[in-house]
Amino acid sequence: MKRIGVLTSGGDAPGMNAAVRSVVRSACGFGLEVVGIRRGYAGLLAEEFVELGPRSVANILHRGGTMLGTARCEEMKLPEGLKKGAESLRTASIDGLVAIGGDGTFRGAQALAEITDIHIVGVPGTIDNDVYGTDYTIGFDTAVNTAVEAIDRIRDTAEAHQRLFFVEVMGRTRGFIALDVGIACGAEDVLVPEVRTNLDDLCANIQSQFAGGKRASIVVVAEGDDAGHAFEVGNKVGGRLHMDYRVCVIGHVQRGGAPSARDRLLSSKLGAGAVKVLAEGRTGVMVGEVAGHVVETPLNLTWSRQKELNVEMLQLMKTLAR
Ligand code: F6P
User: Fold this and answer.
1) Mean pLDDT, rounded, for 305-313
2) How many whole angstroms from 254 Cα to the centroid of ligand 1?
3) Is 11 in the pocket of ligand 1 (CB under 6 A)?
4) SS3 for 157?
5) How far, in Å, is the centroid of ligand 1 from the Cα of 106?
6) What mean pLDDT do residues 262-284 have?
7) Domain formed by 141-255, architecture
């Protein structure tokens, strides 16, 4: 192994820059050259390469987004796209690849590995935390903190007006962000896709909380909830209760901003872990952190196995929302 490529792909996540920095500087320690691939797989297909050394990654540890850029690349899902990707890697003399992203990124990396002799390793970077093989993904902690800060502000105005709010957070098809945000901001209820939403129960809950003297109610809605997006849930509940309500979609605000210290630490650990995997001659795994330790999980398990949401925490949320 002489020369490794690094790319960030899919939705950006705070901490991706810190991971790139860790990959580049750790690779230096092993005497490996590093090539940055811009715009994820889209940039790979277009041969958008940039040589990276320790100084190229100065001053990015604390920045959100990704200095390499990212993309969602449909072409990589097609055999011609994959073939082109393999050719590009050969052109750049890359013999190891660190792919930072979520399950789509790993599927692309695995497919490339199947048609080349390139060694690949994944680093979980997505705010959604929906990757099996790691307790947390890079960006999740920052996104949760950002959403909590936003909801703290919403609570001020909600209390002032004695209002009901539905606040939508991201997470794609999973409720990791919603659950942690809900508990951390003292939400009155949390709707996650993993648990079927019962609108009668939700309405009864809201009514009894107001009757019990609460001055505001904040319902955190995961964007993938089975009852619909926050506007739909608000419409249904507001209609049934004949209550004024407001909706706030936090949206992409959650994806930006400086990474939290936790995300910087996780990125630094996993970037270094990924380079170690390649330097030691292993391939086809994702490096994650489980119970504080860096562990390797076969790439295909990261999407074929489902990471469980601790739904018992919903009970805690309800207990504390009295
Ligand atoms: O996967 C990260 C994520 O932010 C999801 O939470 C969200 O559903 C999706 O990406 C949004 O993607 P885009 O930025 O392409 O609209």
Assistant:
1) 96
2) 10
3) yes
4) helix
5) 16
6) 98
7) 3-Layer(aba) Sandwich (3.40)
